[in-house]
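TICKET: design request
STATUS: open
ATTACHED STRUCTURE:
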């Protein structure tokens, strides 16, 4: 294996982690904008979407160049393929953060109402999933990646309960239906980010172990969740 190839792989890893760091920040900013009714911060998230798009294109081009020039095999091939997929999922996370920011902009124009505690809990769990999926990539830690996969079930459950609670609140306060629909939309977008973080975690497992665990919950069901 040439030193140049090793440097290319290390550079690719740094670039995908840089994308992850920016996306992680965008998600945090979107959630903060929602909680603090901060329209300026929400607009900042929306305006920053082009940066992530450009980073995604650069990483994809690097992956294709490595595949064409070096024809990697085994774990190196799995890593490049996984990065291609992660790159797309991270860009979609950024798009979803923009959607949350837009909901935050609307909610900031309404009479300020406390954010449902369940939604705040969901936001915290989703942010942790994103962080852990990237940590799993840095450390090549399949066990941590499986923890992310398990956490997705809890986020899905919270999202379902949010649907039930908001439907009930709409019946009780029909004059607040638009605000409540936007709140429910935030829950749905958070759940989507959780799904995408799970995709990243599954790709880490594939890279480390060569096992495709997508659609196979039994492949990580026995791993105890971490705090």
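STATUS: resolved
RESOLUTION: sequence designed for all positions
ATTACHED SEQUENCE:
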């Amino acid at each position: 294996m040439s030193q140049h190839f090793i440097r290319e792989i290390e550079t690719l890893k740094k670039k995908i982690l840089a994308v992850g760091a920016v996306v992680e920040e965008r998600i945090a900013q979107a959630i903060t904008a929602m909680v603090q009714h901060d329209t300026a911060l929400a607009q900042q998230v929306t305006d920053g979407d082009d940066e992530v798009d450009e980073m995604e294109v650069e990483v994809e081009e690097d992956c294709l160049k490595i595949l064409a020039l070096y024809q990697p095999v085994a774990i190196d091939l799995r890593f490049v393929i996984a990065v291609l997929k992660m790159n797309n999922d991270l860009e979609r996370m950024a798009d979803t953060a923009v959607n949350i920011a837009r909901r935050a902009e609307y909610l900031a124009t309404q009479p300020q109402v406390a954010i449902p505690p369940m939604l705040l809990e969901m936001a915290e769990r989703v942010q942790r999933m994103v962080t852990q999926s990237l940590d799993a990539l840095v450390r090549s830690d399949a066990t941590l990646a499986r923890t992310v996969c398990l956490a997705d079930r809890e986020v899905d459950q919270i999202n379902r309960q949010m649907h039930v609670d908001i439907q009930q609140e709409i019946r009780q306060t029909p004059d607040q239906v638009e605000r409540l629909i936007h709140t429910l939309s935030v829950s749905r977008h958070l759940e989507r980010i959780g799904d995408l973080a799970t995709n990243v975690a599954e790709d880490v497992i594939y890279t480390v172990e060569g096992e495709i665990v997508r659609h196979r919950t039994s492949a990580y069901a026995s791993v105890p969740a971490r705090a």
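CLOSING REMARK: The radius of gyration is 19 Å. The mean pLDDT is 93.
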